[in-house]
Amino acid sequence: MNARDGIHILESLDGAPAAEWDALAGRNPLLSHAFLHALEESGCASARAGWAPCHLTLRKHGRLAGAMPLYLKRHSYGEYVFDWGWAESYHRSGLRYYPKLVSAIPFTPVTCARLLAAGAEDRRRLIEGALAFARDAGVSSLHCLFPTEPEAQAMREAGMLLRTTVQFHWENAGYADFDDFTARMSHDKRKKIRQERRKIRETGVEFRRLPGGEVSAAQWRFFFECYCHTYRSHLSTPYLNLDFFLRLARAMPDDLLLVIAWRAGKPVASSFFVRGADTLYGRYWGALEYHPGLHFECCYYQAIEHCIEHRIARFEGGAQGEHKLSRGLLPAATVSAHWLARPEYFKAVADFLRRETRGVAHYVDELAERSPFKHEEGAP
To answer: Helices 33-41 and 242-251 meet at what angle, rounded to 10?
Structure first.
């Protein structure tokens, strides 16, 4: 055995060989060394931003055998599993909720592996290592956001609490084209989508879908301007900076897709996607002009058309948003796992999650009754 074998904490992905990390991460570009490293090197996921990297790694025979993306958080922004109420309860009791430990892809509510290891035993060691690190570090809690279902169950067996939330995903039922997709919807939903698309065409707005390798530096800057405009319009501050997107463009262009909307020869809006092996992930958008329906076209319809044309199995439109349902994105349960150091808060959160889980189940049932697809044909 190598002297450095065992569990280690990395304060930067610089300490993990990219090839070894990617061999564990599989084919999801959002888990790739390049994506996570770009977040760190651009400063978006850094101690200064409240996302201090402390990745958990397992080494065997001198090589990386397991990894868990992990961050010491000093706030709850950019997570999409909301625990502000838990933090407020700590504060009212005179306790500190922050810092906490979070295993996640920063600013990215996507379900995929969090325990990057080949075997069940190594995944178990990662869970145990994370819990031991949380105890030794004296943090209030450990949270794993959007793990796979098997990982979540392994975390539950290790003593963590599970929480269910809901997203909206589009599934490709082998549609021949966009019209084939809408033809399987109820009359009113199909009519609404066609009206939205027609009104956008009547404004003179046209769209181009550009693979990352075909996007110029000027077009990336334009997208970033749109992205920032969206945050400013909501009186908020962007999580990401231009340096991050430019790093992605250099490191992983084949995994990126940019949609740009044009009117009268000028770009007016843009949306950004990441392309996985069988899934298109919708991430960010913005517009410098307002046109009714532009958001839906830029963020959903262009993405769905792209998936149909390229036979991509799934489109994930990001967190939340009931408005996605009427546009063909159906509810999908997502899960997170949580451990709290103080027994009284662990019990209180467990009680809360039991009630919340029942409410989420009822919510999903209600959404199913509002499916946009024809009842006789069912949802895809």
So the answer is: 150
pLDDT of 190 above 60? yes
Rounded to whole angstroms, the Cα distance separating 286 from 298 reads: 9
Question: Tens digit of pLDDT for each residue in 95-133?
Answer: 999 999 999 999 999 999 999 999 999 999 999 999 999
Whole-prediction pTM: 0.95
Three-state DSSP at 355 gives: helix
Fill in the DSSP letter of residue 29.
Answer: G
d(C-alpha 357, C-alpha 187), whole Å: 33
DSSP string, 208-268: EEEEGGG--HHHHHHHHHHHHHHHHHTT---S--HHHHHHHHHH-GGGEEEEEEEETTEEE
What are residue 155's DSSP bridge partners? Answer: none
Domains in the chain (CATH in brackets) are 6-167+333-367 (3.40.630.30), 173-312 (3.40.630.30)
pLDDT band at residue 237 under the 50/70/90 scheme:
very high
In sign, the C-alpha dihedral spanning 157, 158, 161, 167 is negative
Beta-bridge partners for 259:
209, 271
Strand 330-340, strand 314-319: pairing? unpaired
What is the spatial distance between Cα 101 and Cα 288, in angstroms, rounded to a whole number? 37
Terminal Cα-to-Cα distance of the chain (whole angstroms): 51
Please list, in sequence order, all residues whose beta carbon lies within 8 angstroms of the beta carbon of residue 17, skipping any fewer than 6 positions away: 64
Question: CB burial class (10 A; 0-12, 13-18, 19+) of residue 186?
Answer: middle
Q: 74 vs 85, 99, 142, CA distance in Å?
A: 15, 5, 13
